[in-house]
Design goal:
MetI-like fold; about 300 residues; disordered N terminus; about 70% helix; mainly alpha; single chain
Amino acid sequence: MKKLKIKSGTILGWAFSLPALIYMLVFIGYPIIQNIILSFKNVNVYTFANKDAQNFIGFDNYIELFTDPNSVLLNSIVKTLIFTVGSIFFQFIIGFALALLFNKKFPGCSFFRGVTMISWLLPVTVSGLLFKFMFAASGGIINQFLVTFGAINKPIEWLLNPVTATVAIIIANIWVGIPFNMMLILTGLTTIPNEVYESASIDGANGIQKLFRITIPMIKSAIMSVLTLGFVYTFKVFDLVWVMTKGGPVNSTQLVSTYSYRLSFEEFQFSKGASAANILFIILLFVGLFYIQLIKEDEVM
């Protein structure tokens, strides 16, 4: 009877898991496998309709992306890292500060916490258009604000200068990602018992000591999750950057994701676009494996 119950429970578990497994195999596993196969072929606008001409060429697409002087892959990887690190740093700092604030009980706390979620709830393309208009040289609210207060003498071409365009997309992504950081950290903060802080206060600990000796160590797992997931989500950002700059000017905001899209759907070099996408996938795969390893080490400790 006991064995029968175990077997029935196992079958029931598989029955509940099967729809999710099928979904992942069809909509995630199959596209990944097809994209890998595509990257080993020479599929472009000339060979797309001719299956016989789509020969396997091995790693030639990858080698060309890394060695071709006209390829901007290496530059896009560097730009993606700059964009990711710059965004995550400020997203985490601001999100952490807001989480500490909204963890306190004060009048209007729930309302203001809900207001901060607007940037996360808006479609990313809408946010991209919003910031594109805000950073516009003519009529942009940011230039109008700076000119009004005498910070600048004439409007700045924010999205036409390589440095300021990078700053603009980082600012836009920070605004989008702050609520995500805030909510995950806030969830971690709610798991800390008040008794711990009360004991620390009795021992004479001040606010800074409580932050670094109690709060941060006790939500270490939440912080690791925020940083890892933030890195993954930010590293593969496409729509926000594409709407604001399309990778310009002069590839100064060209990320790996936008470069892959440009190769596939503007230059119609489908195999090279798939190769660039696979490079992005491999980078994020290593980040995920690193995160899993950190979790295992934390559990052992």
